[in-house]
Design brief:
2 domains; single chain; alpha+beta; minor pseudopilin epsh fold; 4-stranded antiparallel β-sheet
């Protein structure tokens, strides 16, 4: 670039874009640290909000927990020589023990289905599985499924026995 020089003034050279970028370009360390700090704060706030799905081992653990509650209620009925009712609430996605205060809640990403007897021992049973002192029960099936895998928790009406059966939900 050519500039007109005034008389009495020393000539000056104007720096082109290449010369300016060499001395002034880039980010300072403090700017980089600030950006990283902001990203870290956003990650700390947002990561807990990202929904995590129930894994296969965790789904199996829910089935085992529900089966253990049912088996414990059956044992309590035999031990105390009286009926014990386990409440199965499909809408609330929970199983509540009749012998203890234990409640198992299944997460919303797991499909929870229950097939229970409508009548048990000449009474309306609704959403409960009743275990009797003899070991017998009203029976029922609770199914937990997620993404093609699942488990059925089956309660035999004659023996009151509880078993877990793996499913392939298709």
């Amino acid at each position: 670039m050519v500039r007109k020089v005034e008389p009495g003034q020393p000539p000056t050279l104007s720096a082109g874009p290449a010369e300016r970028a060499a001395g002034e370009g880039g980010f300072t360390l403090i700017e980089v640290v600030c950006v990283l700090a902001i990203i870290a704060m956003l990650a700390a706030i947002l990561l807990p909000e990202i929904p995590r799905g129930t894994s296969r081992p965790r789904l199996e653990a829910y089935a085992l927990e529900i089966a253990s509650v049912l088996a414990a209620d059956r044992n309590a009925a035999i031990r105390h020589r009286g009926a014990v009712a386990t409440e199965v609430d499909a809408a609330d996605r929970s199983v509540r023990s009749g012998a203890s205060s234990r409640t198992i809640r299944v997460p919303i990403d797991v499909q929870f289905d229950a097939a229970l007897a409508s009548r048990c021992n000449q009474r309306e049973s609704g959403s409960i599985i009743v275990f009797f002192a003899s070991g017998m029960s009203c029976g029922g099936v609770i199914a937990l499924t997620r993404l093609g895998i699942g488990y059925q928790i089956r309660v035999n009406w004659l023996t009151g026995g509880v078993e877990i059966v793996p499913l392939n939900a298709s």
